[in-house]
């Protein structure tokens, strides 16, 4: 007898207004998870600082975000009646990130939440990764996250109002997923950075956590799937408990919004899996 699997319910639209009067800084905001996070925070009352490289990356197999994508993020935020300042900046450029953030905070008046989301991935067996791909993956995913935090923390300390920093890591930041050695190394680094910052910033009531998705329906997936399918012996590493296959970007945005909210005020230094049960296997 075949059992019918019920479809996953659509993520509920936010009704709380947990971020009224707050400002949220999001990197990688032009599309995908970053856009969903910007829209979620705006729907809950926040103004947004949105940053993205808006360019193709020579080491990836999928197209990069565009300036039009970032403009669409702005349009969706403004539909909720919130302000948004957008910047075309590469997170590898610390001075560019710092200048964009400081200029935006001067205009919007404060900084409450930071979401270090910008990232990319390539796929291949570890010994076949060339130096260019390795360096780009580390620089964007790990050093870019560090630059984001380094630019934001002095502003938050000067405000003396606490806040929240959330890093987008991955299941690959907790597990040794094959075909993703450079990405897993970078995301493990992000996890360690978040844990250290949680200890350093706790006395200032700045909470730091990381979120760990499994597969998410974004432009990164098509680049990974063919290589996984051509290596069937590794497929088990990518299976999950829930039958949905992939999370939606709204699922990740909802988890990040909760971690950033007052409801999670006593949560810091954790690694929150939003992974369809993958890390339970």
Helices and strands, with pairings:
Elements: E1 23-27, H1 32-43, E2 47-52, H2 67-78, E3 84-88, H3 94-108, E4 113-116, H4 131-159, E5 163-168, H5 181-201, E6 206-213, H6 221-229, H7 249-260, E7 271-274
Parallel strand pairs: 1-2, 1-4, 2-3, 4-5, 5-6, 6-7
Helix pairs in contact: 1-2, 1-7, 3-4, 4-5
**Could you give a short account of the major beta sheet?**
7 strands, parallel
Distance between the termini: 26 Å
Radius of gyration over all CA atoms, rounded:
18 Å
> Please, what is the oligomeric state?
single chain
Strand order of the largest sheet: 3-2-1-4-5-6-7
Report the uncertain regions: none
Strand content: 5-15%
* Overall number of strands: 7
Discrete helix count: 7
Q: What is the averaged pLDDT score?
A: 91
* Class based on secondary structure composition and strand pairing: alpha/beta
Helix proportion: 25-40%
| H/E topology pattern | EHEHEHEHEHEHHE
Q: What is the general shape? A: globular
Model description:
The chain is an alpha/beta fold and 281 residues long. 39% of the residues lie in helices and 14% in strands. It has seven helices and seven strands, in the order βαβαβαβαβαβααβ. It has helices at 32-43, 67-78, 94-108, 131-159, 181-201, 221-229, 249-260; strands spanning 23-27, 47-52, 84-88, 113-116, 163-168, 206-213, 271-274. A seven-stranded parallel sheet has the order 3-2-1-4-5-6-7, with helices on both faces. α2 links the parallel β2 (47-52) and β3 (84-88). α1 (32-43) packs parallel to α2 (67-78). The two termini are 26 Å apart.
């Amino acid at each position: 007898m075949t059992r019918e699997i019920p479809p996953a319910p659509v993520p509920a639209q936010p009704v709380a207004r947990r971020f009224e009067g707050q400002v949220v800084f999001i990197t990688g905001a032009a599309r995908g998870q970053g856009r969903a996070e910007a829209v979620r925070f705006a729907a809950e009352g926040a103004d947004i600082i949105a940053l993205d490289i808006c360019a193709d990356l020579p080491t990836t197999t999928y197209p990069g975000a565009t300036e039009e994508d970032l403009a669409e993020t702005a349009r969706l935020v403004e539909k909720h009646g919130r302000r948004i300042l957008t910047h075309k900046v590469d997170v590898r450029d610390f001075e560019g990130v710092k200048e964009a953030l400081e200029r935006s905070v001067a205009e919007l008046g404060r900084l409450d939440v930071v979401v270090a989301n910008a990232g990319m991935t390539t796929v291949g067996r570890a010994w076949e990764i060339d130096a260019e791909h390795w360096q780009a993956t580390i620089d964007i995913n790990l050093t870019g996250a560090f630059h984001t935090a380094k630019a934001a923390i002095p502003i938050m300390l000067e405000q003396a109002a606490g806040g929240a920093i959330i890093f987008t890591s991955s299941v690959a930041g907790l597990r040794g997923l094959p075909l993703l050695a450079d990405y897993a190394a970078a995301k493990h680094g992000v996890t360690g950075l978040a844990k250290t910052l949680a200890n350093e910033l706790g006395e200032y009531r700045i909470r730091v956590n990381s979120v760990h998705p499994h597969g998410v329906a974004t432009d990164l997936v098509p680049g990974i799937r063919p290589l996984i399918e051509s290596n069937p012996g590794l497929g088990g590493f990518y299976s999950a408990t829930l039958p949905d296959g992939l999370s939606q970007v709204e699922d990740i945005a909802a988890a990040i919004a909760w971690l950033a909210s007052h409801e999670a005020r006593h949560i810091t230094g954790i690694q929150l899996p939003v992974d369809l049960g993958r890390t339970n296997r």
